[in-house]
Amino acid sequence: MALDGPAERRDEVQVAMGNGNGVAPSQPSRPAGRPAATAAPYADRRLRLNPNAELKPQDYSDVRGEYAPAVYSALERHLPPSLLDADRDVKLHFMRDILARYWPQGERNKVQRHREYRQRILHLYKPLHEELYNMHPSVFFLPTFLEAVRSNTEESFRSIMTEPIPGVYSFAMLQPTFCEMLLEEVENFEKWVHAMKFKIMRPNTMNKYGAVLDDFGLEAMLNQFMEQFIAPISKVFYPEVGGGTLDSHHAFIVEYGKDRDLELGFHVDDSEVTLNVCLGKQFSGGELYFRGIRCENHVNSETQHEEMYDYTHIPGRAVLHRGRHRHGARATSSGLRINLLLWCRREMKKYQKDFPSWCGECQREKRERQSQCVKATKMAFLRGSGGATI
Question: Which of 138, 281, 344, 385, by CA, is between 20 and 30 Å from 267?
Fold first, then answer.
């Protein structure tokens, strides 16, 4: 099946690092006329290509500046062995020097402006439901989901899940009371923003309605949400995209219906793993359609029949998939549909470019090459045996 149009990348509006994926450009850049920075200690030492999975990073939550603490925690796993036993201040100096050389000034300015915007909101906004801002597992999650996470085995996870197509998992997750509280909190925030005449930051470049949950104080709770309840699952089902080493997130609400976004075009997410949970309300339509996993080189390739699947949203029920799994949302024909999205990421990541195991088109091309090789071998054998039947 040919695609109706090219898949877009649904990037968030705020810039994280480098190209928006947490990957620094391959070559350092420096504005014209700006002198090179004085070499920092250890500046001649090369970062590890692959992260040190056994290293437990130090705590950088108290560090203030241009970079999120998760960036330092992720980058520390790539430090050269000679730095691993160094003081935290030495590591910080080295990492800041690396980041300053590889992160363009313009993007750093954007991040700083957004940080100031967020700080102003946090200073002024009064939450409606204070209990949402700290993790309360028994209040937030269904008992069946909590039991599966506590057991922390593939068998326990699969016992609560369906897998309608490879790599897409659906399961009952959230308590109705949590869904209601979160909906009320978002509505309260949007009314407050309107009253204060603030400009609300939308979730990404494709959604024109909704809100970024991290902007009004939910970041710490949602980071626990990812680390304690999503990462254990993604470690089992998505190891090839770093599902076990997720270290940052982008969390937001999307709204579909009359006077909201109606539908969402064909796209991939700016994430390693995406959690999508319907919160409500009453609606019809709005199915989520999937069209196969693709790497950057094949993002607009044709969809195979077996890759096609439509998912119907149910309040409280989650769907989990790779960020590179192409998908879109059909029109919400009536009512109002509101979903919680959690883009789970690795700040330091390096996608495999040549025939990654998770890309459906790469796998198809690999099978085709293998088939051609077998055919060529058989033809060569037949020619060598004079065409005798074997």
Answer: 281
First CA to last CA across the chain, in angstroms?
A: 38
Beta bridge partners of 257: 336
What is the SS3 assignment for 325-378?
EEEEECCEEEEEEEEEEEEEECCCCCCCCCCCCCCHHHHHHHHHHHHHHHHHHH
Residue in this structure with the two tokens 């902007």, named with its chain if needed: 215
91 preceded by a cis bond (ω within 30 of 0): no
Whether the CB-CB separation of 358 and 304 falls below 8 Å is answered with no
Using alpha carbons only, give the angle 64, 79, 34 rounded to the nearest 5 degrees. 60
Q: Give the C-alpha separation, 83 to 257, whole Å.
A: 53
For helices 69-76 and 88-102, the axis angle rounded to 10 degrees is 100
pTM summary value: 0.72
- Per residue in 123-148, pLDDT (tens digit) is 999 999 999 999 999 999 999 999 99
> Torsion over CA of 176, 178, 183 and 189, rounded to 10 degrees?
170
User: 336-365: per-residue pLDDT in tens?
Assistant: 999 999 999 987 654 333 446 677 777 777
Q: What stretches of the chain show up as alpha helix (H) in DSSP?
A: 69-76, 88-102, 105-124, 137-140, 143-151, 154-158, 176-196, 219-224, 231-237, 360-384
